[in-house]
Amino acid sequence: MTHASFSEENNKAFSIFGGSVIETSLSFHLLSKDIDLSAKELNRRLSQVSNVESSCAEDGMRLGLHKVVRVSPKTNSSAPAVVCGAFRAIFGAIAIDTGKSDDAGNIFWTLHGGDLGVALAL
């Protein structure tokens, strides 16, 4: 896994796609449970899961992504933005490899724990 600070050939596109996969999966999950969920509440919950400083980075750290992402010598591989980008990139790569964003979303829920703000300890 490569951060943009290390090389022009990096996982940034996978990170962007993975973030969209996570948000789509979360939206589907929440609206399936409560079709009357307000747009404001949906957006609040999406922000909670995709927050770089909390949930996203915590999930990535739990997986040990800070130990495997390649960064430049001047970049901290444990920085929340780096770890969160790597975490999101995984789900983009899974969706591409399987040809199904649902598969990536299901794996996200397995890793995240199925509840907002509660990530499983690995």
Strand-helix topology:
Layout: H1 12-33, H2 39-50, H3 52-63, H4 80-98, H5 101-112
Helix pairs in contact: 1-2, 1-4, 1-5, 3-4, 4-5
User: Can you count the helices?
Assistant: 5
Give the topology string: H per helix, E per strand: HHHHH
Gap between N and C termini, in Å?
20 Å
Name the poorly predicted regions. Answer: 117-122
Summarize the structure in short.
The longest helix is centred in the first third of the chain and has 22 residues, at 12-33. The protein has five helices and no strands. The chain has helices spanning 12-33, 39-50, 52-63, 80-98, 101-112.
Keywords:
122 residues; single chain; mainly alpha; 5 helices; globular; disordered C terminus
Describe the overall structure.
- There is one protein chain.
- The protein has 122 residues and is an all-alpha fold.
- 63% of the residues lie in helices and 0% in strands.
- Helix 1 (12-33) crosses helix 5 (101-112) and helix 3 packs across helix 4.
- It is globular, with a radius of gyration of 14 Å.
- The relative contact order is 0.21.
- Mean pLDDT is 83; it is low at 117-122.
